[in-house]
Specification:
heterodimer; A: alpha+beta; three-stranded antiparallel sheet; two-stranded parallel ribbon; 4 helices; B: 7 helices; 4 strands; 14% strand; globular
Amino acid sequence: MLRIRGMKHVSAGPGADVITEEQTRTEESLDVPWNVVVHNDPINLMDYVTKVFMKVLGFSRQKAEIHMMEVHQNGRSIVWTGARERAELYVQQLHAFLLLTSIEKAR
Amino acid sequence: MEIRTTDEGWVFEDMDPLIVDLLRGLPDFAATDDEAARARIFSSLTGGADPEADREWREDVGPELRALFKDHVDVVSSDLRTIQGEDDAFTLTIPLENARAWIHTLNQARLALGALHGITEDDMEGRLRQSGARAFAIMQIDFYGMLLGLLLSRTDL
């Protein structure tokens, strides 16, 4: 069972049920847009990464493949930008699929 | 080894002992306690940019992910206990409903092995000459990757 931080009504990770919970955030965290960044690793299969992007982020196959190739060729790809809570939700789901993912403040 | 796809899943037939050993080692590699492997499997929220946020992440999210990953490994371990045969002809059946657990565990083992041996892009693309344990680890990663790709080809995550 996968507990999601800070968001309601979310889709599950791989075969997981989901419980949601509210979490207090600081003003700064809420104000700043955050990037969800997927980093390259030498192990994950390209087709696997593409399918994870489609599953977690709702990308079309074409968009998922563009981001997958960006990760592969440039070492990273920003796959989403927005509020911190949702950014953390995406990171948690991508971590559940073992993609090397982090958040950073958007410039 | 021959692989048959059926309506119910996959049947791996005529597996020799080496293949069986590689498969039976899958749960241990996936769930290794090695520090580098653990760091890769349970990666941080900010990549070290905000240590406090990373610490909270480990405390809040870590237990949930550990439980989820253990569930996957348990499913695979259970399937592995059904391997039948003797000499050079072992058989394993992977039910379709267990495909996600297998995909995850194969991937987790690959990542753990990669971290354990410091495998790089050049290693995986065969640009470096390897030998010994490191070469064997790359072979394991490739073998698990072949199986992962096979299961992924007919499974929605």
